[in-house]
Structures are given as structure tokens and as C-alpha cells.
Amino acid sequence: MQALAFLKNYYFFIGCILVCLGFPLFEITPAFMSIGTVLCSTALLFDGKLIDNLKKLLSPPVLLFILLWVLLLVGGLYSEDKVKWWSICSRKLPLLLLPLGFASARPLTKKQVWWVFFVFNAIITFFSIASTINYLQNAAAINASMIESKSVPVWPVGNGISHIYFGVLMSFGIISGLFFALKETQPVIFSRDRIVFGVLGILNFIIIHILSARTGLVALYGGLGILAVTTVWQYRRKKIVWLALLALPLLPTVAYLTVPTFKNKIINSVRDVQINRDGGDINHRSFSMRLEAWKTGGGLIAQHPLTGVGPGDLDTEMAAQYVRNNTVLWPENRVMPHNQFIENSVQMGLIYALLLLVVVLWPFIKLKRSNTLQWAIAAMFFFAMCFESVLERQIGVTLFPLVYFLSGYLPKNE
After folding, report:
1. What is the pTM of this model?
2. What is the rounded distance in angstroms from the CA atom of residue 368 to the CA atom of residue 371?
């Protein structure tokens, strides 16, 4: 009975913790993330009063997330590949389940919110340190491979998650860690917790430049820029804060001069753009292949601007469009758009992509009803989605609503 009572009082908190643990462990076992998502979503049935729940469910952010998933469901009406369509709908269930859970659950306490963010930062830091150790043991080979569009592997090598998604996870960890380090003057979960958050944030900031996942870095500087500007405005009377803001643009330069992987990633990206511009061989050139994919996706959007080709038919239609364009890419290099807004436009039309943009930027649309962390998260996801289809894998499609609504528990206008 005591166990049941404990579970009833803390199931939503436990669900959030399990999801956080599940992110870096996903390729080993998806159980943590799946069980955590289910636990969070049960709040709709077992927590709160029905009328109160309905009022929360009618709030714009929750409705917007629900609409994203429901429209995908409707997309099955004109998708020829029903198996692929249903696979996409089932994979994106967190877009429906997590907002419903957050709208229905009793709000987490301040201490619980801090614990969830702390567990997230701690588990990501563990895997980032392990990945760095593996890099240091194989530095020469990895440094050379970065010139040829390869990546620093995420630990455990062979079973680690994609470096792209790990970069996004790290960027959120850095932004949230620094946010909490600056937020309070008194301990919330343990003595000197702010210092620990700050140390984890700074450590991961250094490591993300060593791992040099391009999408994660773009997302980091986008979100960190918003966090820096709002922090400067909040503490604008302190000269040291202004100096920190002025120093932010210099950090990539320092990284370029001191971190071999970061330097080689920049050289590789510049070379990709030059090869694409000059009409050279873009096969096995990561960024050039993305540019070609964006152009191919743009052709399909022009043909189906309102409805898209159907969520289940993206792969088939992209392959056909590559052929129609007489692409120089070999079949194994004909990738999907690697841009969430382009991919959704191809799948579901421009209106659906615009809806997603509204969801991502909602904290800016409702500026006075949002807090600093929500603004930084919005910027982070916007930039990440410009360089990767973040919501096409379970890690991204779970991370997005989790941190979106979890950060909403924090006070507004921080």
C-alpha cells in the first residue's frame, strides 16, 4: 500500500526522470524513455478533476501540439504507404501524450523541477565525459576523419546515440545548466547546487566543441545568445555581465584556434560549401549533401505546396525527385532533407510547417507569459530544426515537448 501511495504521489516526477535517463541510453534500450512517457501521460486519467483538465487542455500550447499530431493522422488519408505513415504517427505519439500529461498532472514542485533538470544534466555530462575519453584515446584518427565529413563517436561506441541528437541534448544541458546557475541565490535541492549546475554547464560547453556536432553547436549558440541577452538585460548594471556578452562571439574563434576537431569541422563545412558552389563532386560531403537534399525537397514543395506528398510517401517521392533533378549524388548519398521545416513541408505542406514554426516560437509570441529559459529553448530548437529533422526520431520528438512544458513550471519573465 505504501508503494502504491508513493507511486500515486510521485509517478509524474518519476516519469520525467526516466525520460531524462532514457535519452543517452536509447540505442541500448528504449525502455526508460517509453515507460517514462507512459507514466507522464497517465495523468490525463488519474490526476486532477475532469473540468480542470479540460480547461488546461484548451490552452493554446497544448492544442497546438495536439494539432501537430492529429494532422499527421489525417495525412494518412492521402499517403499511399500506410505502413510508413503509421510508423511515423506512432513514433511521434510523444507530441500528443506528453502535452496531455503536463496539462493534466499536478504541477511539479520547484524542488522536483530542479531535480529533473539536474538528473538530465548529470546523465548527459557522464556520457559526454566518456565520449571525450574515447576521443582522447583515438585523437589522431578522429581528427583526420573530421576533414572527411565524419563525426566524433558518442560513447558507448557502437551503441551510442547519433552525434547529432547528442549535440542537441548537450546544447540544452548547457543552456539549462547555466540558467539554473544564474537563477537562485539560495540552495534548492542541495548545498551549492547552483555551483554544480554551473560547473556541469561549463564542462559540457568545452566538451561540445571537442565533439563538434554541427547541429548541436548551431543550436547552442542560438539558445545561448538569447540567454545571454536576457541575462544582460536583467543584470544590466553590472559591468562583468556586459563583458561576458561581448566575449560570447569570441568563443568560437578561441575554439577554432585550440580545439582540433572543431577546427577540422569548420574547414570541412567551408570546403563543402565551396565544392557545392563550384559544381564539384559532393558525394560523401555531409553539408553539400544536405544542400542538395534541400533543393530536392524544394522541388517537391513547389509541386505540392498545400498538402505535401503525404507523410508516408516522403522517401519514395524524394527518391523520384532526385532522379528527375539528375542529381550527381550516388543512390546511397541521397539523404532526406535534414531540415524539419522543409521535411514537414514536403510531407504535409507549407501550412503544416508554418504551424510547427508557430509552436516552436510560441514563447516569443507570448513573450510576457514566458520565461527566459523558454525563450532560449525556442531559439535552440529553431536553429536545430534548420539543420536537422529533429522530430523524426524518438529522442527529438520526446525532448521537444518535455523541456517545452517542463520549463513552463518556472516563474514567468525571469
Report:
1. 0.95
2. 8
